[in-house]
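Forum: Protein Structure Q&A
Topic: Joint prediction for protein chains with partners

I've read a bunch of threads here and the consensus seems to be that you should model interacting components together rather than docking separate models afterwards. I'd like to see that in practice. Below is the full input, 590 residues plus whatever partners are listed. Could one of the regulars post the assembled result?
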Amino acid sequence: MQIISGHDKRREGYDLGAFDYLKKPLSKEELASSFARIEDFVNKKLKKLLVVEDNKQQNKAIIELIGNGDVKSYPAFSGQEAHDILQKEEFDCIIIDLGLPDMSGIELMERIKNSEHLKRIPMIVYTGKDINREESTKLNKLAHTVVLKTVDSPERLFDETNLFLHRVESKLPAEKQEIIRKLHRSDEVLINKKILVVDDDMRNIFSITNALEEEGIQCVIAENGKEAIKVLKDHQDIEIILMDIMMPEMDGFEATREIRKIPKFCDIPIIALTAKAMKGDREKCLIAGMSDYVSKPVNIQKLISLLKVWSYQ
Amino acid sequence: MMVETLENEKESLAQMMAILYRHYGFDFRNYAPSSAGRRVKYFMKTHQLEDGVSGLTKLLLSDEEVFAQFVQEFTVNVTEMFRDPKFFLSLRENVLPRLASYPLLKFWVAGCSTGEEVYSLAIMLKEEGLLDRSLIYATDLNPKVIHNAKKGIFSLELMRDYTANYMAAGGKNAFSDYYIAKYGSALFDKSLQKHMVFSTHNLATDGSFNEFQMIMCRNVLIYFNQTLQNKVIKLFYESLGNFGYLALGSRESLLFSDHRLDFRETDRKQKIFKRIK
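Posted by a regular:
Agreed with the consensus. Here's the joint model:
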């Protein structure tokens, strides 16, 4: 059922089982995009959601919040139970609580990420627990998004989950994508190289590390210049650095100058990730001691070519 | 003194902007002609330059220091703390409670000028218990204003007006808790600055550099023509996380943006929008 109404009673509409809600007055574009969504919906099978939360009442509450018509939700009350059910059913999205009785939510997510057929399922962390820095760095790599439990958080959980359940998937099936990726992987210079990615932009960290790991590159992460210098001391075998410019604590220019002072890294390739387009900004990168630059948003194919160039050195 | 008709003036202004872009890389080609013309005229008047736009063009090309001065004066926008208190009140009531579910909050104040709104936002985040996990990125095209904004020093005589704004914006403490008065200036609390990252960024030419839960860009788009407005809204769209918020100035809108259907109004009057897809 598609509701078109002059009153904004979106939630009531959804509760009654509506698929979508449009508010009048309605433009031609909105109506057209609404039909596209309906078509999309009709052509697709039921969406499946897995809710991993050990508290029975809360698990039920989440399923009641998200469940409408086209979504079939499955509860799991422990990490093992979630793991087992994932082997049997194909899911479109997983909501995970961090504190589970038999393993941590992070452990469960790492298992999912290590599984070839599960690793592409979007995962949403929903937790009332305080997240420390170490966990937060891990979650940035594992989860698509993190929702902390607050008074208003159900609304956001609802929005985020629906986004992943109804997202338009990329047109090629996974197998074909894999074949194309392998075709692009023309040579193996990059395999087992260790690269440090310094960026406070989580989208970048997520997309860059995922793409580079597909190429067989090992990625180490730092969220600002200060952290990068610390990480370098612990990982002396890092061979290339990707460095964002605008960061809290210590920016990319200062970090580069500091790194160049360390004898071991005085000529390691440092590639700037920059949102700036002007000549002067690029010159500043080189003056600070960077080796090259690539513009944001990062084009992965270009970045890989650039890394090949710099790893031949 | 060269006499230029209105039409000629418009044309020579456009020509000057094209030349400056080629020569220096600063792109003012898409500024709204009326306000650009006003600012250029004001620059010529205050510096007693009487050779019209073509004379100014020659001068700007030959003297980099004059050009630097020109960039500063041409781009400075007037701002104040808790400007439009009702806007900040709406932010406090309608947006911040919904952002509390993010483990880390990133804000971008684009075109922050001398930083008044950056400090206002930080104060509000502190009062709502969110500052400790927030980072505010404050950018402006103009390096001089960024340099000043970083210092966190504002004129003391303005504090009386700002205090009234702060209270009207739902302030929970005494405004004077946040600054120390010294030598006719108000020095703002360093603990606020810890959560700010200042940098130059050119909205006309530079790209997205992070993903934000909220972008504030108030009273900047009015100086741009439709083409540039559309481009900048696209940049904001790309820099917002899903369900992130965008706040514009009271006379600005998404009406001419290709992305207008990707946002929903959170507060129509205060021009707060939420990215919905």
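Chain B has ten helices and ten strands.
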